[in-house]
Design goal:
Elements lengths: L1 H18 L1 E2 L2 E2 H16 L4 E3 L8 E3 L21 E7 L2 E8 L4 E10 L7 H16 L6 E12 L3 H10 L10 H16 L1 E12 L10 H19 L2 E6 L2 H12 L28 E4 L4 E3 L2 E10 L11 H4 L5 E11 L1 H24 L6 H18 L4 E12 L2 H17 L3 E4 L4 H5 L11
Parallel strand pairs: 4-5
Antiparallel strand pairs: 1-2, 3-11, 5-6, 6-7, 7-9, 7-10, 8-9, 8-14, 11-12, 12-13, 13-15, 13-16, 14-15
Helix pairs in contact: 3-6, 9-10
């Protein structure tokens, strides 16, 4: 009898370990995640130090993408990343190359003008145009599309330097009530203001390019980026242009360390004014913790948007997170159009399984629960939408919060969590995966399995 009880308890505990959910993962999954993180920490693979922190990674498009792969000095989560340049109408655009040139990504700088001031009908119309942009990428070389909205701390150095240059020689640099008051005002304004940046990344898979011409991949990427840009214009966005290699270098550099001081860029060629541009895109050092990722002068914490609104919301449901947060953070959503044939096969299989389950329950006289009815209804609606010509999109969202140190990171995370809750979003920390998750909020179209 005792053996039977012990065997029953063992089986029960095993089932609980295999199926019980803790933070959207089972205990078995947590063991794998924690084990991988512990192994990386034991082997010191969670730390990175650049061998040549002043070396950039700009390579012309004509070079073989494989030849200099081993020369790159990037964190392990970005192994194989290269910034290349492609010709475009007498200029060049920056392209992020991955997997030995198989994946190519161009980044568009955008500006959304007064979306919140538009009437509800116009907002819905613009969102419909954006939906058309995504659905139009199905069954094309375009693999994924990603939008990012990031904030960076406003720099008060320029105002302080102007004050020191323009003040009267009779007024001391420090100690005078007027000067001290002005400096305090600058410091406060910097702490509560951010610069907002909206980016759209377009990624193609070169294996989907039918032409085998030498420049076919570059031409296809430019074509897809132009098509997306035109769709964004119809959706009410202002396209500033595609980023150059130097812009991409600056973008990655300030993503790893938002508090670094970088000079202004010349709009004519994307170079920093006043000398040769410093295009070192990658951090000098980085170390991964359980719930944060430290890179140079900043500490980051990345969250997965595990739950989207379950109630009816308007077009501005993300406004509390995107416009009303004062924390330094990046919000990223990656979309992957699903081919029509694949969607139809998947939904037909789901309908067949659901009807078979209904037949089994009816044979044994089992009642159908409300949850089962809702699931079957959702599958039928999905089938009807596909039959009506709609396309399906896979997507995933992530939020990275940044701060100068761990103490300020705690405050920033609490603020972002509060703003996300107001947007009806559920955030979950990417424990033990912070280094990889951080790359999901870079313009690399990552985050979908």
């Amino acid at each position: 009898m005792g053996g039977l009880i012990g065997a029953t308890m063992t089986i029960g505990i095993s089932v609980a370990v295999a199926t019980a959910q803790l933070g959207n993962r089972t205990a078995e999954q947590w063991v794998l995640v924690a084990g991988e993180w512990a192994a990386r920490r034991l082997l010191r693979l969670n730390a990175f130090r650049s061998r040549a922190p002043t070396t950039g990674n700009l390579l012309p498009a004509r070079r073989d993408p494989v030849s200099a792969e081993s020369d790159l000095d990037v964190p392990p989560a970005l192994a194989g990343i290269r910034i290349r340049e492609f010709p475009y109408r007498g200029r060049v655009i920056g392209v992020v190359s991955e997997r030995r040139g198989r994946l190519l990504t161009a980044v568009l700088a955008c500006r959304v003008v007064s979306f919140s001031l538009l009437d509800a009908a116009t907002q819905e119309q613009n969102l419909a145009h954006w939906g058309g942009v995504l659905s139009g990428c199905a069954d094309t070389p375009a693999r994924r599309i990603q939008w990012l909205e990031r904030t960076s701390p406003t720099e008060g150095d320029e105002l302080a330097r102007w004050l020191q240059a323009e003040r009267s020689p009779d007024i001391p640099a420090h100690g005078a009530p007027l000067i001290d008051s002005y400096l305090e005002l600058i410091e406060r304004s910097v702490q509560i203001s951010q610069e907002h940046e909206v980016l759209v990344a377009v990624q193609i898979d070169t294996t989907r390019v039918r032409s085998r011409a030498k420049d076919a991949a570059a031409a296809t990427l430019v074509e897809e980026a132009e098509r997306v840009a035109e769709g964004l214009r119809r959706a009410g966005a202002e396209i500033k242009g595609a980023m150059t290699p130097r812009h991409l270098g600056r973008l990655f550099r300030t993503a790893f360390d938002p508090y670094i001081r970088v000079g202004p860029f010349d709009d004519r060629d994307g170079c920093r004014t006043g000398g040769e541009p410093d295009c070192a895109a990658w951090p000098i050092a980085a170390i991964e913790g359980w719930d944060h990722y430290r890179t140079d002068g900043a500490v980051h914490s990345t969250y997965w948007i595990a739950g989207w609104p379950r109630v009816d919301v308007g077009a501005l449901f993300l406004d509390p997170l995107l416009s009303q947060s004062f924390a330094v953070r990046t919000v990223s959503v990656t979309f992957e159009p699903v081919g029509t044939d694949r969607s139809i096969r998947d939904v037909e299989a789901q309908v067949t399984r659901a009807e078979a389950d209904q037949a089994v329950r009816a044979r044994f006289g089992q009642a159908e629960t409300a949850r089962q009815q809702q699931a079957y209804g959702a599958t039928r609606r999905r089938e009807a939408e596909l039959a009506a010509g709609y396309s399906e999109i896979r997507f995933a969202g992530f939020v990275t919060v940044s701060a100068p140190d761990v103490e300020q990171l705690h405050s920033a995370r609490a603020e972002v969590a509060r703003d996300a809750s107001r947007s009806h979003l559920e955030l979950r920390p990417m424990y033990a995966q912070q280094a990889e998750a951080f790359t999901f909020t870079l313009p690399l179209c990552r985050g979908l399995r």
